[in-house]
Amino acid sequence: MFGGGVLKGLTVTLKEMIRPKVTTRYPDETYTFPNRFRGIQKLYPEKCIVCNQCAMVCPTQCITIRGKPHPDPAKKGKVLETFEIHFDTCILCDLCTEVCPTEAIVMTNQFELAEYTRDALQKDMTWLTENPAEAREVNLPWRKT
Description:
Radius of gyration: 22 Å
Number of helices: 4
Cofactor: [4Fe-4S] cluster
Number of strands: 5
Subcellular location: Cell membrane
Organism: Kyrpidia tusciae (strain DSM 2912 / NBRC 15312 / T2) (Bacillus tusciae)
GO cellular component, one term: plasma membrane
Pfam family, one: Fer4_7
Helix content: 10-25%
Order of helices and strands: HEHEEHEEH
CATH topology: Alpha-Beta Plaits
Largest sheet: 3 strands, antiparallel
Structural class: alpha+beta
Strand content: 15-25%
Oligomer: single chain
């Protein structure tokens, strides 16, 4: 029959027109992301032991971490001096948070990083610490929900 394919296409189109819409009006309505969503990172510098595992496992080498000896000579280990992430090259792969033994760096549900220049996407330790986003529940085993 001539036009059978057109009729099938029109039936699919008509079915989709009467289905309820699933899009959200983003700036006005916030979308609830799943718990395993990989947003930007949050840093807890008091937990960091400066093991450099996050920087070594990063596939894009966007993490820079430096430590200094502990100011108290009685304590062993290092204290975090600088921690930077270059979000212009970060692919938010979650490898840095998975490898961290003390969970000093965790993923959040925040994803908005719009900037006008690439230099503004280089975030330092203070920005990562003061990041107002809530960390995902998957990365917070110490918090009981």
